[in-house]
Amino acid sequence: MSTPRARIIGTGSFLPEKRMTNDELAKIVDTSEEWISSRTGILERRIAAEGEVTSDLAAAAGLKALAAAGCAPEDLDLIICATSTPDLVFPATATIVQRKIGAQKAKAPAFDIQAVCTGFVYALGIADQFVRSGMSKKVLVIGAETFSRIVDWEDRTTCILFGDGAGAVILDSAPGGSTQGILSTHMHADGSHVELLRVTGGVSHGRPEGFDWRHDALGFVDMQGNEVFKQAVKAMGSVAEEALAANGLTINDVHWFIPHQANRRILQATAKRINLPEDRVVTTVDHHGNTSAASVPLALDEAVRDGRIQPNHLVLLDAFGGGFTWAAALIRW
Ligand code: COA
């Protein structure tokens, strides 16, 4: 019997209602609409409401993906949530999502993965292995974040970049001979650059003296933006080429390139590096900023729903994030 193939049969996404424009940000930190839009391409981002947590965004995106796929929550036999901003240290956000979408009856496994902005593509790669091995058939894969809770709102070099949101897909097992589905996934990490992009606090560092456990946050996003920019373009370019070469395809075969939505200039530089015309790059960073693990599935859902992605199109997902981590997935739609 040939190896089954994982196929995306539904997509969904969710953005919190509250918009924050660049002009509003300019009232908080020393910046301007012109600087943010010209250096990043970001025009606005969404901010989760008080009490609205990552699992709320994830569940909303998951339910939309289930509806698009025509599946019931109890059909799911695996839930993976990629996030760096979980509701709680434990249990996993995926288990909280399972309850919120009413999928607990199936008692399917549910877990989180953490690869920062690469998280969704990593999660998709893991889900693909579960389907290929025959362990799972229908899988919900989510990328969801509330980065507004971990940015330093006094640091103009980072707080202007990030936003909140969630995106999700449903995978189904297709027969091995099927031409449509995930062709391959490619994942990498290089832990030598932890200091270039990280959150400064965390659980196992313990609480500093004077820490007020009721009010103090666990740290903030800290980033050397310039260096991260260069590394992101290089890594996303090389993993895109690796995915194409592994399948005997070239950049001319790609209908849609869906990179991590970090900064419009990163998207443009990566497209240039791999010789891809910009009109084949799905760009959504203008209206939600960098939503970390949510950004690739948010852009994917938008391009599916507006009809750009059509059956048999070749779609290349590509991401880069803290760690550093980077990954690509090549999909025949
Ligand atoms: N408003 C106004 N000025 C700002 C500013 C802001 N929000 N943020 C930085 N600046 C200033 C800097 O202080 C610096 O001033 P100086 O020349 O007087 O020192 C100047 O702008 C240039 O800073 P630099 O960091 O070189 O700008 P840049 O063109 O590299 O843009 C980023 C900064 C953060 C937008 C860009 O580096 C970036 O997007 N990096 C990747 C970030 C990212 O996507 N991370 C996540 C990846 S998963």
Instruction: Please trace the helix and strand order, writing H or E for each element.
Output: EEHHEHEHEHEEEEEHEHHHEE
- How many separate structural domains? 2
Query: Looking at the chains present, what oligomeric state does this protein adopt?
Result: single chain
Distance between the termini: 23 Å
- From the alpha-carbon coordinates, what is the Rg to the nearest angstrom? 19 Å
- Specify the overall morphology: globular
Q: What ligand species are in this complex?
A: coenzyme A
CATH architecture of the largest domain: 3-Layer(aba) Sandwich
The average pLDDT score comes to: 96
Return the CATH topology of the largest domain.
Answer: Peroxisomal Thiolase, Chain A, domain 1
Q: Strand-residue fraction?
A: 15-25%
Fourth CATH level, the homologous superfamily of the largest domain: Thiolase/Chalcone synthase
| Tally of DSSP β-strands | 13
Helical region count? 9
Strand order of the largest sheet: 1-7-6-4-5
State the helicity in percent bands. Answer: 25-40%
Identify low-pLDDT runs: none
Descriptive terms for the model:
333 residues; alpha/beta; Peroxisomal Thiolase, Chain A, domain 1; 2 domains; five-stranded mixed beta sheet; four-stranded mixed beta sheet; 9 helices; 24% strand; binds coenzyme A
What's the short version?
With 333 residues, the chain is of the alpha/beta class.
